[in-house]
Amino acid sequence: MVFPWRRRKAGRLSAKKEDFEINSDMELAIPTHFRCPISLDLMKDPVTLSTGITYDRESIERWIEAGNQTCPVTNQVLRTFDQIPNHSIRKMIQGWCVENRSNGIERIPTPRIPVTPYEVSEICTRIMEATQRGDERRCRELVGKIKAWAKDSERNKTCILDNGAGRVLATSFDHFASVSMEKHACLLGEILSALTWMFPLGEEGQCKLGSTSSLRCMAWFLKGEDLSAKKTAALALRELLSLDNQQVNGLMKIEGISEDLFKIVEDPICPMVTKASLVIIYHMITQQETGSKLALGFVEMGLVSLILEILVESEKSLCEKALAVLDRICSHDEGRKEARRHALTMPVLVKKILRVSALATEFSISILLKMGKDEDGSAVVEALQVGAFQKVLVVLQVGCGEMTKVKATELLKLMNRYKDRLDCFGSSMDFKYLKRTY
């Protein structure tokens, strides 16, 4: 039996529940004049063009950067691309956000005024003047201002790059490095940390950063105890050598650079620095004149063992760079002999095929092919024992690059020569398939 008062109470609760569901489904309508005409989203940094139409800064900048020269709403040709901040609309939007805070609307922060090309040019001129005077304190202030601008937005970064700040900072770095690295260490570290995101620096900037004094300073940072300076030096050297391989010759003349790079790989600071160091090592050992000698030096230091440890557990980018260095080292007899001494070599290389990336697969097959050309054939037999044949065959079946295909085919033919020495294969069916296909 249900009492009447219980029935009425249940009805009221049901009505309240329905009202709540209706209200929760309602969406808060954004006023039309608060929306950007391009993205139709709430404007965060409203700016007005010469046509009188207001847009969100990010949206209209993308429109102009795409090559459009008209106003999106009026379709009028823009006489000027100046964007004037609309503070009235921005304050109204912020007030609306505060009023609707209970509905989950967050107040948009007051945007910073973006830096202009004139401001960048002016500060670059001041840096050059302070550099010529040898005024370290003033230079640090100005470099700090550039770094603060860059942190504000990507637009500021682009403006800084487009107006030659990289060239100016590289010139300043070269000047103070040639005077005294120890005396100006703090300033040099500040400049280098800013330069790491300014590449490419242009021909003049790269020439200044690749000078003898600049390279010696970066090598000095690599040798020091300051981890932040080590990181910026490694990143700057990686970018410099990737853009201009001729700078490698100057770097290799610096005493102890190989040992310093090896120590960074041996005692990693972070994956980014390890990858940068491996890229630098790769550029060094690929040089025609002295690359072989440097590669043997790294082998004697124990770089092969370190690379194998890295390959056991590493992410894609680090794995690719480690395999690239190992591939180059295995181009030399001593490098292959050192790799053969490690029990991990073959299992790790075979495991990386088709497990990381197409580039890692190519490097792994290349290393196996180089090691397999030794006279006794023990490397090929060991590779077969850990499943190399099946893996390489799948590479050819699923498709791969032309260079990888050539190397994989050659490796399969090499394996076919030693099939009789392999106990783990009871049938030679796969080898017959290889003979028939290739």
From TrEMBL:
<dbReference type="InterPro" id="IPR016024">
    <property type="entry name" value="ARM-type_fold"/>
</dbReference>
<comment type="function">
    <text>Functions as an E3 ubiquitin ligase.</text>
</comment>
<dbReference type="InterPro" id="IPR003613">
    <property type="entry name" value="Ubox_domain"/>
</dbReference>
<keyword id="KW-0808">Transferase</keyword>
<dbReference type="InterPro" id="IPR013083">
    <property type="entry name" value="Znf_RING/FYVE/PHD"/>
</dbReference>
<dbReference type="InterPro" id="IPR045185">
    <property type="entry name" value="PUB22/23/24-like"/>
</dbReference>
<dbReference type="Pfam" id="PF25598">
    <property type="entry name" value="ARM_PUB"/>
</dbReference>
<dbReference type="GO" id="GO:0061630">
    <property type="term" value="F:ubiquitin protein ligase activity"/>
</dbReference>
<comment type="pathway">
    <text>Protein modification; protein ubiquitination.</text>
</comment>
<dbReference type="GO" id="GO:0016567">
    <property type="term" value="P:protein ubiquitination"/>
</dbReference>
<dbReference type="InterPro" id="IPR058678">
    <property type="entry name" value="ARM_PUB"/>
</dbReference>
<dbReference type="InterPro" id="IPR045210">
    <property type="entry name" value="RING-Ubox_PUB"/>
</dbReference>
<protein>
    <recommendedName>
        <fullName>U-box domain-containing protein</fullName>
        <ecNumber>2.3.2.27</ecNumber>
    </recommendedName>
</protein>
<keyword id="KW-0833">Ubl conjugation pathway</keyword>
<dbReference type="GO" id="GO:0006952">
    <property type="term" value="P:defense response"/>
</dbReference>
<dbReference type="InterPro" id="IPR011989">
    <property type="entry name" value="ARM-like"/>
</dbReference>
<dbReference type="Pfam" id="PF04564">
    <property type="entry name" value="U-box"/>
</dbReference>
<feature type="domain" description="U-box">
    <location>
        <begin position="29"/>
        <end position="103"/>
    </location>
</feature>
